[in-house]
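Saturday, quiet lab. Running sequence design on the structure tokens for the scaffold JK sent over.
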């Protein structure tokens, strides 16, 4: 399996706080049949993209070398979880923040209530630059839950969606789980990510979580969301065209 959303780099953000903990997450990944992780540290500092990329790449190299020395068969690629706000309109080139150098940009919004129109405007800017925004954990945004029709608008402009395994497993409550499930069954979701921040709390034990997915989520869904589509993203390929059922 491939995890396209993980905060595994040591001392990079609010995720892993040490190389030892990052290696613990590598160990958990291997036990859970995950052989590729895209490291997606939070990105907020639009005025220091180069510094962010340099630190990220250095820490990914350190982690990959340490994992290889210990005999783990898990590799770490690079991306970012890009926080969208008005600074996006004056931001420099974002190419090095994409998932493994592809056109896919993992994006997040504030978890506080905000106007859905802002999400549309920010994503329009990204699409105009040639990126494909992948909206991280839409099930966590209260305004998406209250008015899911924004998903239709974002999809129509070219956005994709990634739900968290923990949300789909019900760890955030029934409402969050139901919405995550709906996003998959309606065809909007292209990947399930762990969004792991450690090997314990908010962990990357994906197999435990798949056991808790709603029964509507089939083995075919899991294969598509945890392997086939993430592999296309990793290989910088187009995702297949798909009919969706609008909200």
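Result came back. Writing it out in full:
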């Amino acid at each position: 399996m491939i995890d396209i959303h993980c905060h595994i780099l040591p001392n990079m953000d609010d995720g892993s706080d040490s190389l030892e903990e990052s290696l613990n997450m590598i160990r958990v990944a291997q036990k859970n049949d995950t052989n590729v992780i895209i490291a997606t540290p939070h990105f907020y500092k639009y005025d220091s993209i180069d510094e962010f990329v340099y630190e990220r790449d250095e820490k990914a190299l350190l982690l990959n070398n340490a994992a290889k020395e210990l005999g783990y068969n898990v590799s770490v690629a690079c991306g970012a979880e890009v926080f969208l706000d008005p600074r996006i309109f004056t931001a420099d080139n974002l190419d090095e923040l994409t998932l493994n150098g592809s056109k896919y940009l993992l994006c997040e919004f504030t978890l506080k209530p905000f106007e859905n129109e802002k999400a549309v405007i920010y994503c329009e800017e990204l699409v105009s630059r040639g990126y494909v925004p992948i909206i991280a954990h839409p099930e966590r945004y209260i305004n998406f839950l209250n008015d899911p029709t924004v998903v239709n608008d974002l999809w129509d402009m070219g956005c994709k969606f990634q739900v968290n395994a923990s949300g789909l497993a019900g760890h955030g409550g029934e409402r969050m789980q139901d919405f995550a499930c709906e996003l998959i069954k309606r065809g909007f979701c292209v990947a399930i990510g762990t969004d792991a921040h450690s090997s314990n709390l908010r962990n990357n034990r994906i197999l435990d979580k798949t056991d808790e997915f709603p029964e509507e989520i089939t083995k075919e869904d899991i294969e598509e969301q945890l392997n086939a589509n993430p592999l296309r993203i990793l290989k910088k390929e187009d995702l297949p065209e798909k009919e969706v059922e609008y909200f």
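Notes for JK: The first helix runs from residue 19 to 31. The two ends are 29 Å apart (CA to CA). Ask whether to fix the surface positions before the next round.
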